[in-house]
Structure formats: C-alpha cells, structure tokens
Amino acid sequence: MTPTHLGPAEHLFSAEEVEAAIQRMAVAINKDLEHLTPRRPVVLLCVLTGAVVVVGQLMPHLHFPLVLDCVQVSRYGAETSGGSLQWRTRPKESLAGAVVLLVDDILDEGITLQALQEYCVAEGAAAIHTAVMVRKKRPRTVEVQVDYVGLEVPDHFVFGYGLDARGLGRNAPGIFVLLEDN
Ligand SMILES: O=P(O)(O)OC[C@H]1O[C@H](OP(=O)(O)OP(=O)(O)O)[C@H](O)[C@@H]1O
Ligand code: HPA
C-alpha cells in the first residue's frame, strides 16, 4: 500500500522487512546486554516522537531488566530539513551510573543522537548503547557512535514506521521515500 495522502512515494521496505530488521537488532542488543549484571536495570530511552514504533516492536524481544523512559527532542518539525535542536521533555529516571540504551527511528545528520549522547554523558551514565531503526547513507559532519542499525536508507526524505513527513505518515506500514521532496 502506498500512503497516497502524502503524495507520490516509493516503497523501500515492507512492514515485514522492517520488523525482521528490528528483531535482528534485538538479537544483537541481547547479546551485548543480557549478560551484564548492573546494579540497576538498563534505562531504555525512547527518543520521541518518531521512535515510539520501533521501541514498541523492540521491547518485547529484549531479555534483560529494563526501565522505559523517554526524551523528546525535535529539529525537523514541519520541515524536511533540520534546524536547531529543541528540547521538549527530559528523562525522568536518573541516568547517573546507569547503562543507557538510546533508541531512535533514524540517524540522518547525526545531530540529534550526538546531542543525546552528550546529554547522557553529562548526566553521568555509566555506559551508552545506541540503536537506530534506519541509518541514512550520507556524509556526516558530526562524529556519532551507533551500535545497532536496522536498515540503511538512501539519502532521501523517508517516512513510515514512526518516521513522519511534515507530521504525517508515521503510521505507514513500511518505509517509503517521499518523492516530491527528493
Ligand atoms: O540525525 P538528525 O539529522 O539529527 O535527525 C534525526 C532525528 O530527526 C527526527 O526527529 P524530529 O526532529 O523530526 O522529531 P520527531 O521525532 O518528533 O519527528 C528523528 O526522529 C531523529 O530523532
Ligand atoms: O528522512 C527523514 N524522515 C523523517 N524524519 C527524519 N528526521 C531526519 N531525517 C528524516
């Protein structure tokens, strides 16, 4: 199905392909984190809004004690190019001494994930692991560590599975390229 209300779109990955990629990420994350015996559960930080779908799919496949928290930051809003990072909600859990698993829907320029990693370090996290559902194949000016990547997408604006195009398309059942903007 092509979500026509967003205009012409190219179907990149089906829902089944995205779910399989998320499951592969879960296997890799479990391998790294389930043998840890931290004094407290891992803090899974869902990067709202877009990561809500990937986090919902990923969590039931994670086999270690975790607490779910969220951080809400935004730099695209109604645009298809990024601006300055707006902080909306900070985590409620203390990150001091915690093993943090940051989960976002996409790594594009990398500015969001880099800022969140710096935030976790500043809050005293003991270790930070990062997972993204999709990574855009593009040059980056920022150095950002990503430990788990579900799928690679071309350097075009994409939507679906939590990713929005001007606020819409987060419910699209798969990942699509928005053609009119690319
Ligand atoms: O790597 P970057 O270029 O920094 O972009 C990645 C970020 O952009 C999107 O968030 P957005 O600002 O659109 O907020 P949203 O999650 O509410 O859609 C996406 O969810 C990532 O968090
Ligand atoms: O390609 C994208 N699609 C949706 N949201 C995004 N945030 C950064 N890049 C993207």
Name some characteristics of this structure.
182 residues; Rossmann fold; three-stranded antiparallel beta sheet; 9 strands; 21% helix; binds 1-O-pyrophosphono-5-O-phosphono-alpha-D-ribofuranose; binds hypoxanthine
Give your account of this protein's structure.
With 182 residues, this protein is α/β, with parallel strands linked by helices. It has a single domain (4-181), classed as Rossmann fold, CATH 3.40.50.2020. It is built from three helices and nine strands. The strands form two sheets. A six-stranded mixed sheet has the order 4-3-2-5-6-7. Helix 2 links the parallel strand 2 and strand 3 (66-74). The longest helix has 19 residues, at 15-33. It starts with 8 loop residues before the first strand and ends with a strand. The structure holds 1-O-pyrophosphono-5-O-phosphono-alpha-D-ribofuranose and hypoxanthine. 1-O-pyrophosphono-5-O-phosphono-alpha-D-ribofuranose binds at residues 47, 49-50, 74-76, 82, 104-112, 164. Keywords: Glycosyltransferase, Transferase. One of its GO terms (biological process) is guanine salvage. It catalyses: GMP + diphosphate = guanine + 5-phospho-alpha-D-ribose 1-diphosphate; IMP + diphosphate = hypoxanthine + 5-phospho-alpha-D-ribose 1-diphosphate. Residues 12-165 form the Phosphoribosyltransferase domain.
